[in-house]
Design brief:
The structure is a single chain. It is globular, with a radius of gyration of 15 Å. It has three helices and seven strands, in the order H-H-E-E-H-E-E-E-E-E. It has one domain: Nuclear Transport Factor 2, Chain: A (Roll). Strands 1, 2, 3, 4, 5, 6 and 7 form a seven-stranded mixed β-sheet that branches. The protein has 129 residues and is of the alpha+beta class. Helix 1 packs antiparallel against helix 2 and helix 2 runs antiparallel to helix 3.
């Protein structure tokens, strides 16, 4: 069961933009991660590689400060909000809940719940001159 300080440190790492580093630091070696009803990815190294590849497809990923998280035994729920800017300048936002099972101070399983329609791309921002 994670303590509150560990979960807060995990959240701070992600909000600080260190997404892959958060996986390296806070996930068990055999952890799994699942998007909605897709098959889970397994193994911390696989999760880190997937995260780095996803980040490489974007110019910027902004993680909003977390407005809610809960810890109940070995279960943690976190409300995440992310703004993505792709390399072509198109943007989208994701509002999701993560449901995690921790084994001690490491995430053992995680599942994300979000509406994939949120990934609709918006036009690039035009800077005013």
């Amino acid at each position: 069961m994670p303590d509150k300080a560990t979960v807060e440190a995990f959240i701070a790492t992600v909000v600080g933009g260190q997404h892959a580093e958060a996986i390296e630091r806070f996930y068990a070696a055999d952890a799994s991660m699942q998007e909605n009803h897709h098959p889970p990815r397994r193994g911390r190294d696989v999760l880190v590689a997937h995260e780095r590849a996803a980040l490489a497809r974007h110019r910027d990923v902004y993680t909003h400060p977390v407005d809610f998280f809960a810890i109940e035994g070995d279960r943690v729920a976190i409300h995440w909000r992310f703004d993505f800017t792709r390399l072509d300048g198109k943007r989208f936002s994701i509002d999701e809940f993560a449901y995690q099972r921790w084994d001690g101070d490491k995430v053992a399983e995680e599942r994300f719940f979000y509406d994939p329609a949120q990934m609709q791309l918006q036009a690039p921002r035009r800077d005013s001159t």
